């Protein structure tokens, strides 16, 4: 008997699990619009506290872009920052839709994403078909906290009205997975497409 047999809910990260994301596309856009090399931008960009604050909804996109001007030493208009920022997304990952189609026959499906309001507008429209599989999508700006903060997991479980041990969570970040496990959630680090399938139904 697998851990999933004891779960009533499957909780999915979006970026890196459901939707392909790649910051290189963002850096390429900023480099093309600024005349600064992609390598320079990539070397200076960090997932710092301002990035986290933006995902919690504590600062606006404009405030975050102002921070980027200073830390990257790159001068772009808010419109150009935003255009590149929204180039993060690729397409739906692999055979995830077939996995969700099968999974919803046995479990309630939810998603939990660290995101920001600008990105949320994009993925809600562009990926509406795949997102329809989820009963609800919880986001860091709406919660005011983000993975891997324990409070974020507690709030999501409370909103789903499900005990932590009845949740199986899939994320591509080991840090987020370990934090979820510390909260009593069954969590799987997704490194390849088969990881979700194997966790739910075993190897073929």
Quick structural summary:
The chain is α/β, with parallel strands linked by helices and 204 residues long. Helices cover 50% and strands 15% of the residues.
Secondary-structure map:
Blueprint: E1 9-12, E2 19-21, H1 23-34, H2 38-44, H3 49-56, H4 61-72, H5 78-85, E3 89-92, H6 96-103, E4 108-113, H7 117-126, H8 128-131, E5 136-139, H9 140-143, H10 150-160, E6 167-171, H11 174-182, E7 186-189, H12 194-201
Helix pairs in contact: 1-2, 1-5
Strand content: 5-15%
Strands ordered across the widest β-sheet: 5-4-1-6-7
Low-confidence stretches: none
Q: What is the percent of helical residues?
A: 40-55%
Question: What's the count of strands?
Answer: 7
Number of folding domains? Answer: 2
The CATH architecture of the largest domain can be named as 3-Layer(aba) Sandwich
Give the overall silhouette.
Answer: globular
Helix/strand order, N-terminal first: EEHHHHHEHEHHEHHEHEH
General description of the model:
The protein has 2 domains: 3-18 and 93-201, HAD superfamily/HAD-like (Rossmann fold); 23-88, DNA polymerase, domain 1 (Orthogonal Bundle), CATH 1.10.150. Helix content is 50%, strand content 15%. By secondary structure, the protein is an alpha/beta fold. It has helices at residues 23-34, 38-44, 49-56, 61-72, 78-85, 96-103, 117-126, 128-131, 140-143, 150-160, 174-182, 194-201; strands at residues 9-12, 19-21, 89-92, 108-113, 136-139, 167-171, 186-189. Strands 5-4-1-6-7 form a 5-stranded parallel sheet, sandwiched between helices. Strands 2-3 form a two-stranded antiparallel sheet. The mean pLDDT is 96. The chain contains 12 helices and 7 strands.
